[in-house]
Amino acid sequence: MNPVSLFKIQPVQRESYRVRAYLEADRGWAAVALRRLEQLLRDYPDDAKTLVAIGHIRESFLGEGLGALAFYERAFAANPRHPLATAYATMLARDEQEFAKWVALTKTNTPESDKNEMFEKIRARIVDQGEPYAEILREGAALQAKGGEPGRCAAILEIVLRMPNGRARNSVETHRYRAQALRALDAAADRARKSRIEYFAPDERLALHNAVAEIDRAIELDPYDAELWNLKAAWLVLLERHEEAVGCADEALKLRPRGYPKPYQNKAAAYLALDRLVKARLNAEKALEIATTLGSEGIEDVELAKGVLSRINARRDPTDDDIEQIVKQTINAARRIADELMAVFRESTGCDVNSVAKGLYRITRQLGENWNHTHVLMMCEFLADFPPEVALALLWALGDRSQTAYRNCVDTVIYIAAHAEDIMRRDAGRLMALLLLACIKPHLIRRHYREIILATAGASDEFAPLADSVGEELRRLNPLLYKAFGEQPPLTESEIVRAREMMLPRFRQAELQAGGPARGSLWSALRSLWSG
Hints:
single chain, mainly alpha, Serine Threonine Protein Phosphatase 5, Tetratricopeptide repeat, flat, disordered C terminus
């Protein structure tokens, strides 16, 4: 039996799991946060707090109105007395009748809430003054945007745009406004990731996918707006749909053939990503030529065109020295994340990395010196409680106490990365990638990746998913890292035999040991770091 399948988030862990998801969303990992909460929802399908958390992340970080509302409604069905479900649903009500229903329920559930006064004022504007509900929502969306809440702005506008009788239903400008609010969400997540030198994979840019869908609705209503086509081209470049981006930029240039450098910039960026450097240079130079004729209005475009040309001129395959710098930046970023989170833990609990590592050491001592499947349940719980960056710091501290305990934990991470699914697979794969990168030197990382990851995956069908789990997370950290370490020549037969003889025997202890740590004893102390 695969022991990973026996793991389930314990009731006491749910709040810390939700807190962790919010922290991830705030750091540009909204897609990861949703995967985490959806796993929790599979274990606890009627958990109103989890349903509200999913709705809130969809609203605030992805700009989804209808999607968020669906989860608030499910939360209310699961727990009609939940204090936030009704209030959040009120702000996304689809019509006047639905708004009145949620206002009454919010008053009943949270009579002391300051939102009741605001809701009553809106109700009066609708009932007493006859103001159109759609216009009140549009006003609310503008206030959210002005207050630095592009997610809530976009969520409210989705409600407006889907109203059958909404005055703004077919407004190109409203579609454009919502699309740009969604792009602002994507840009904020991108900035958070760039501060960690981290790649933003297209499949994780959920808000940007929503933005492109919204700009498509605007184009459907007005296919002759060159700026709409150019926005779509720019965003498709970010989503790495480069051929489509070129086509959209060409449409923009057909509609506005003179004095418009931006489509040429987008074409240059797309061709550069496609490694078609001649076309990239021609379009960048054309963008620069046009921008310089625009005077003060073209200053920003001049700098953008120069930036593309600079990237074209600097285009070359990275050396190992370049890769080592990227590795150092990645590990330093992981340390910063761990330090930030552990500072919060220390403030609320008085525990630091060493004290938590001490608790982890006590647990591993109870499991014995030989690796066994009980280590898997322990490490699954560990990964559920601590992000990979924090787990990395804790394992380093554990290694200072006991190399045997450290080795058993690393072996367990390998096992979980090969056997887990979805978010647990992601966490284990990311932690293993970080552990390998901690070697810093490219020749060492390349060798260990080959011996520990590729050879183990090639030596057994059971461990075959290991290469994809770790490789995927390495790519998500930085595609250049995957190219440097994941793309290697085929394994030799002797390497596979060696993995069968040296690596696989470590995992042959198939029985769960009795007498392991009681879940909720030492682990409760560690979990308190998350829940505060």
